Every structure is written in structure tokens, then in C-alpha cells.
Amino acid sequence: MAVLERTPGVLRAMLAGLPSQWTDATEGPDTWSPYVIVGHMIHGERADWVVRARTVVEQGESRAFKPFDRFAQFRESEGKSLAQLLDEFEELRVQNLRTAKSWELSEAQLALVGEHPAFGAVTLRQLLATWTAHDLGHIAQIARVMAKQYAQAVGPWREYLPVMDR
Amino acid sequence: MAVLERTPGVLRAMLAGLPSQWTDATEGPDTWSPYVIVGHMIHGERADWVVRARTVVEQGESRAFKPFDRFAQFRESEGKSLAQLLDEFEELRVQNLRTAKSWELSEAQLALVGEHPAFGAVTLRQLLATWTAHDLGHIAQIARVMAKQYAQAVGPWREYLPVMDR
Hints:
Two copies of one chain form a homodimer.
Chain A: H1 7-15, H2 20-23, H3 34-47, H4 49-58, H5 72-76, H6 82-102, H7 107-110, E1 113-116, E2 120-123, H8 124-148
Helix pairs in contact in A: 1-6, 1-8, 3-4, 3-6, 4-8
């Protein structure tokens, strides 16, 4: 929770007001810019983490998760500024954490199982840990994408900057 | 500059008030925690970037850079809380950016050369680009170190989280 609640502020601190040379930059064809990544994280708030967690918590007839659309952001972010996306992400995250906290999950509930489309049985505990690690992975990705824009500009220092070749 | 001036806020958004299980976590023996990384970045503000840039800008007798101590933080951070380090980094960064801006560097000045202890001739432009990329590399590292704390907890999702194996 301590990590999940910080993410909207982290994205804002990194990206709000930053020139688009940075926020639209990628690592090459078919890789994502910071702008695309924020859109992807918004889709996760709408369609993945808490939606799937609810399926597990409620233990209804079907505990199967809907497949997650990894390309939804190319459609859903259309026409939106990065500032709008940062606001949207924050609102959804605050709402989702409120929902998750309201469940007051017990150890027994954290061990309940849902059905992942690829992996099969996964626990609620694994789902919530993945929500957190997914945030951190994309924060690392945003910083890496930005760093790579200077891969040439740093000259010989590249040798000391492993981020350039990750 | 747009990136450099955001870094203190990014570190604060990621780390301020976060439990020490996260801020003292590492990737294993002889790897750095977020706490250690912030100390290293402070030493960079004190002894590296603007100090070296000044050597180049002033074009005095010697343009040789002093070697950078990559372990200074283990000595210099001693007894300090992470909150203190975050404040210290911010103060030093604000001051250093004020200095760098005051030079009102021209294209000609950016092409001036200093002497790196390992690489030999490097330009001021390369030094300033490296200052920026170095920030981003360490932000990515902090997020990665944190993500890895959940390498086991995410269960089968690990396969979808490349950050766990970088």
C-alpha cells in the first residue's frame, strides 16, 4: 500500500510539465513512451488489479480473470494530454486503494484463488504483490526510456551507465 | 535542466516516509539500497558534476577532474536519516542548478574540454548530459531494487515482469 499510494505522485514528479521530447520518446519501434506507459497504467486501474481482486474476494460462480488488453491505451489515451492522464491515473488509483482497503483483507482471504487466463490458479496475495511490482517496473521503464535519449550525448561515459543497455 | 530540476521531487515522491524494508532493501550482497543511492547522488552534487563543470568553464591551468569516490556515501551518510538525505540532496541540487544556469553557457562553451581520469578528453556537453542520465539511471535502479523485493511474492506473474531479472 505504501508503494501503491505513492505512484501517482512519482509519475507526476517525473513527467508533469516535461517537454514532449522526453514524454513521447521511446526506445525504438514498437516500444513505449512515458505517455503510452501512463495510459497503460490507467487501463490497469480500470480493467485489471482491483477488478480481478474483486472477482477473488467475492468468490462468485466464475473466478476467471478477463484477459488484459496491453494495447488499450493506444485507443483510450487518444486526444488526451499527459496532464489529463496523470490526473486520471491519480483519481483511479485513489479510488481503487480505497476499495482495496475497505475489504480489510485477512490472511485467509489473501490466500483465496482466482483463475488467470495464462497461469491458472493465482492467489489474491500474488495479484496484489504484482500490482505493486508492476508500478515499480514501469517507473523503472520510464526512467530508462528517458535515459536512453542521451545514449549518444554522454559520449564515453556510456561505459559507466548500464541503464543505456538494459 | 527540465529533468535535473525534477529529480529531488522524484526521489521524495518515491521514498519519503516509506518503511525501511523498502528503503534499506538491496538486490543482494554488495548492491545498493535506495538509501545508499541517495547518499551517492549527494556526493555527486558535492564532488562531481558542477565541480567538474566549473573546471571546464574556467579553463584554468589544469582541466583534470579528480577521480570520483563511488563509496563516499558509506562514510558521509553515516548517522543521517533518509529524510535528512532527501533534504540535503534537494538543497545541493537547487544550488548547483542555480550555478549552472548562471554560466549562461554558449554552444562554444559546451564544446570546451576537460580531462576525465579514465576517458581523457570529454566535453562540457557530455558532462552535463551524463549528469542527467546518471539521475535517470539511479531512479530506474531504485524502482528496480524495490520491485525485486517482490520477486517471489508475485508468483507466476514474474514471467511478465522483466524488471525482476534486469
